[in-house]
Each structure stands twice: as C-alpha cells, then as structure tokens.
Amino acid sequence: MKLIATTAALCLVLAATPALANGPTEKDAIAMVERGVALVKAKGKDEMMKKINAKDADYVQGELYIDMRDLKTGIVLAHPINPSIVGKDLTDVPDANGKKYRREIIDLAAAKGKGWVDYQYKNPSSGKIEPKTTYIQRVDDVVLEAGIYKK
User: Fold this and answer.
1) In a 3-state reduction of DSSP, which class is residue 18?
2) Rounded distance, CA 102 to CA 93, Å?
3) How far is it, in rounded angstroms, from Cα 106 to Cα 109?
4) Where would a tag sit more exposed on the chain, N or C end, judged by fewer CB atoms within 10 A?
5) Is 139 exposed, middle or buried (0-12, 13-18, 19+ CB in 10 A)?
6) Long-range contacts made by residues 92-98, C-beta under 8 angstroms, separation at least 24?
7) Does residue 1 register a pLDDT over 80?
8) Dist CA 143 CA 80 (whole Å)
9) Does the pLDDT at position 18 exceed 50?
10) Could you report the per-residue pLDDT of 104-124, keeping only the tens digit for each?
11) Which residues form the Single Cache domain (predicted)?
C-alpha cells in the first residue's frame, strides 16, 4: 500500500513539474525571472547577486538559470554557470551567428522593460552551441535574464 501511495505521489509531482520531464519551458523562465525581480525589489540587487553566485536552487535549475547585468554599462554582475564573464562588458560580442544579442537585451530592457531575445549559446547540459530564447526583465538599474534552449 505504501508503494502505491509513494508512486502516486511521485506521479503527481512529475505531472506538476514539466521542467523535470520535458526540460524547462517559457513559463519556467518567466517565473524564475519574476522571482528574481521580487527578490531585488524586496532585498536589493546585492542579495540577488549572492543567490545567483551561490547557485541557489530557486535561480539555478539545470540548464535554466538566472543571470544579471547592469542596464547602463552592460557589465555582467552575476552568472552562475560562467563566472569568468562576471565584471565584463560583453555587450557587443556576437553569438556564433554574428548577432549582438546582449546589445538587443539591453535595448529591449531600456525600451520596454521586458521581453524575449533569441540567439545561439552554449548549453551547459550538452556542451554544444544551440538556439536559445531568453526572457529578460529590467528591475531598477539591472536586467535579469533566464533562457531556455529550443528543442
């Protein structure tokens, strides 16, 4: 009887968590960014940077993670997967197809406050350059970003 109850509970968890079964979705990316925005508003950007750098489970879930850049300078303030880019301005460094997507992120954040940007990026799960779409949202003077790889 315990086995049936445990199995049923596990099935409910898996059904309620599509990110586990099929990879993260656009909804997952939006939700992660919105959690980050709420944290920045409540506790400030320094607390958000600590959470990102510590790979806090609310902000780093496999290939779905949040990073942060300064809106005015483009400097990466926190990145859980590639900490070597923190402190760098990569605004005009193109992706594998020559697209200056970071410039697009900053321009979109400045003009509209939030939205989606498509580009090519190295997937930490596969190690390959893959198509990615990232949800961005401005909060105060920073931009929070979380993206998903297109399957």
Assistant:
1) helix
2) 8
3) 5
4) N
5) buried
6) 95/119, 95/120, 95/121, 96/120, 96/129
7) no
8) 15
9) no
10) 999 999 999 999 999 998 887
11) 26-103
